[in-house]
C-alpha cells in the first residue's frame, strides 16, 4: 500500500470521519473549513485527487465530493490514532446486563447479541462455545408419557441440552430412575461427543434407555451456536433494498457466519472491510470482531456487521468491552 505523509493522512482521516457521520460525498472546501488541516481548499483538492488516484477515495459523480473506498477505510482503521471508548452510560448498561445475567447459556448468548445490536445499531453476531468441548455436570432421564421421555444434560459451560426419546413399549418410572443413575456414573466429567460406549448395568431395559440417551446426546454440540441480533436495523443502514435482502439472507446461513468470523480472527484481524472477506453478498459491509477468551482459551466471538461507513471506533470499543465481560461471565460458569 502507498505510504501517505501526515497531511494526506489527516485529509483522508477527515474525509472518512465526515462520510461516516453524514453518508454524503465530502468536498474539499468543507474539509479545509471544518477540520484542522490548515491548508487552502485548493491544496486539499489537490491532495484528494492524489488519494483518489491511489485508490483511497472515489468520486461517485464528476461534480460531487469524494467518498472512501475499502482501501481508504482500511488505512483509516489501521492508523486509528486511539481506540474508541464507550461512554459511561453504555459501560453501565453492559455492566448491569452481565451482573443480572442468569439462566441457560443459550439465553445469555442470545440476549448478548441483542445487547450489542442495541449499543451499536448494527447487526450483531455472537458465536458461543461448542458443547462438545464441555463436560457433563448432570444428566437425567425424565418421563413425558408412558412411551416417551427426555434426556437432559447440564454442561460445564452452562449449556442445557435435551433430546426426545421414544420407546416401543411402556417404560416404568423406576427404570427411568435407574437409567438416570447409570448415566450419571458413565457421563459426568466427560464430553458428549463420541460418548456411545457404556458399561452394562445388568438390566436390559435400563441399558437400552442409556444407549438411546447417549446416542441422542452424542449428536449435540457438533456445530457452533450462533446468535444474530439487530438484523432489522440493517434496513436503515443501507439505501438499496436488494443489498439489505442479500445481507439478511447471508446472516441466516449459520455455517457461513461462523466461517466468516473464524477466518477474520485466523488472519489476525479485528476488522474485515468490504470485499476483503470474500463473501459477495457482504461486499458492502464491514465486520468487527473480538474473541471471547476464558482461562486463556478462545471460547467464542462477539462481532458486529454493518455498512463499510460504520463507526469503527465505537464498534471496536463495543465488541472489546462485551467480549471481555462475556468471557468473564462464562468463566464463572
Task: Indicate the topology.
Blueprint: H1 6-22, H2 28-34, H3 41-53, E1 57-58, E2 67-68, H4 70-78, H5 88-99, H6 105-120, E3 123-128, E4 136-145, E5 148-155, E6 160-166, H7 173-187, H8 204-218, E7 225-229, H9 241-251, H10 254-266, E8 271-273, E9 285-294, E10 297-307, H11 312-331
Helix pairs in contact: 1-3, 2-3, 5-11, 6-11, 7-8
Alpha-carbon distance between the two ends? 45 Å
The strands making up the biggest β-sheet line up spatially as 7-3-10-9-8
Rg, nearest Å: 26 Å
| Total count of helical runs of at least 4 residues | 11
Number of strands: 10
- Strand proportion: 15-25%
- Silhouette: elongated
The computed structural class is alpha+beta
Mean pLDDT: 87
User: Which stretches of 5+ consecutive residues score pLDDT under 50?
Assistant: none
Question: What do you see in this structure?
Answer:
With about 325 residues, the chain is α+β, with helices and mostly antiparallel strands. It contains 11 helices and 10 strands. It has a 5-stranded antiparallel beta sheet, sandwiched between helices. The chain has a 3-stranded antiparallel beta sheet with strand order 4-5-6. It has a two-stranded antiparallel ribbon with strand order 1-2. A hairpin with a 2-residue loop joins strand 9 and strand 10. The model has no long low-confidence stretch (mean pLDDT about 85).
Amino acid at each position: 500500500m502507498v505510504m501517505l505523509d501526515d497531511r494526506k493522512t489527516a485529509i483522508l482521516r477527515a474525509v472518512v470521519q465526515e462520510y461516516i457521520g453524514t453518508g454524503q460525498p465530502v468536498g474539499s472546501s468543507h474539509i479545509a473549513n471544518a477540520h484542522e488541516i490548515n491548508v487552502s481548499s485548493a491544496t486539499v483538492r489537490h491532495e484528494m485527487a492524489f488519494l483518489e488516484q491511489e485508490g483511497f477515495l472515489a468520486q461517485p459523480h464528476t461534480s460531487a465530493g469524494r467518498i472512501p473506498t475499502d482501501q481508504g477505510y482500511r488505512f483509516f482503521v489501521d492508523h486509528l490514532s486511539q481506540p474508541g471508548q464507550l461512554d459511561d452510560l453504555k459501560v453501565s448498561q453492559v455492566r448491569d446486563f452481565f451482573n443480572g445475567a442468569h439462566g441457560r447459556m443459550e439465553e445469555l448468548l442470545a440476549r448478548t447479541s441483542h445487547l450489542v445490536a442495541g449499543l451499536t445499531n448494527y447487526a450483531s453476531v455472537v458465536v458461543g462455545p461448542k458443547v462438545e468441548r464441555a463436560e457433563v455436570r448432570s444428566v437425567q432421564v425424565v418421563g413425558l408419557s408412558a412411551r416417551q421421555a427426555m434426556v437432559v444434560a447440564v454442561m460445564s459451560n452452562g449449556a442445557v441440552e435435551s433430546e426426545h426419546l421414544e420407546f416401543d413399549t411402556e417404560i416404568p418410572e423406576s427404570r427411568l430412575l435407574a437409567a438416570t443413575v447409570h448415566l450419571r456414573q458413565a457421563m459426568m466429567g466427560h464430553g458428549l461427543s463420541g460418548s456411545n460406549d457404556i458399561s452394562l448395568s445388568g438390566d436390559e431395559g435400563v441399558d437400552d434407555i442409556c444407549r438411546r440417551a447417549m446416542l441422542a446426546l452424542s449428536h449435540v454440540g457438533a456445530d457452533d451456536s450462533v446468535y444474530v441480533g439487530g438484523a432489522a436495523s440493517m434496513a436503515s443502514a443501507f439505501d438499496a433494498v436488494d443489498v439489505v435482502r442479500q445481507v439478511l439472507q447471508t446472516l441466516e446461513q449459520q455455517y457461513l457466519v461462523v466461517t466468516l468470523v473464524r477466518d477474520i480472527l485466523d488472519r489476525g484481524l479485528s476488522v474485515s472491510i468490504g470485499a476483503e472477506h470474500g463473501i459477495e453478498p457482504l461486499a458492502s459491509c464491514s465486520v468487527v470482531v473480538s474473541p471471547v477468551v476464558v482461562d486463556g482459551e478462545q471460547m467464542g466471538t462477539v462481532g458486529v456487521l454493518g455498512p463499510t461507513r460504520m463507526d469503527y471506533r465505537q464498534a471496536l470499543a463495543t465488541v472489546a468491552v462485551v467480549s471481555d465481560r462475556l468471557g468473564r461471565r462464562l468463566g464463572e460458569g
